[in-house]
Amino acid sequence: xxxRKLEPSEQPVQDARDLQKGVAPVKAEFLLYPSGQRHQSxxxxxxxxxxxxxxxxxxxxxxxxxxxxxxxxxxxTSRDFGSSRDAIPLCATRAHSPEFSPRECRFGNDCRxxxxxxxxLEKGKREDLKTFNNRCPVWxxxxxxxxxxxxxxxGSHMEEVELExxxxxxxxxxxxxxxxSQPGDDEDGIGVVNIVSTDAKISLTKKRYxxxxxxxxxxxxxxxxxxxxxxxxGKVDRDE
Length: 240
Description:
By secondary structure, this protein is mostly helical.
């Protein structure tokens, strides 16, 4: 059956979306509009598409750029997950020392980390945690904290002492009785498990550690694997 050619008056009206990039065209005769809102709906659709395109181009905003000024990719570029590092890192020579009697730093004024303890506590350090009733569990168990000023509970084991010259010094607090009851090696302290001694690590590295039980077990596994292969597949290992 031959199709009848449509007259110009019967031709479907070309919709504006037929010429719009990224939008699937739909024949005008299949579109439904509320009475008197046909042109308004078309304008609103165009505005929505333009707004979506602009959002895709500018998503993330100014805050999604990294330190080099490049735009970050991937998802969640506008979310802030915080940081696990201090804003101003403290030099290791100050981490366990009183404010006015720190250990000497071999880098001196060229050190990349701050030597100002008060500046670190006020502006550089992450705020203390509120768990464990604001008390350091390590200090409660050992009488001192191995993290020193960097501890997230440092406020629970520090004090400010006024010296004879009138200055006020920040110091870390220790419990002498608990410290004396602890073993010499921090790795053998309370709550520490699965620790390998230094001598054992060296022996393992140099392959001097006695692994007789493991060697015997591996040989047993190899023999059983060969027997299983032979029984299931009728194959014999060529090495036999």
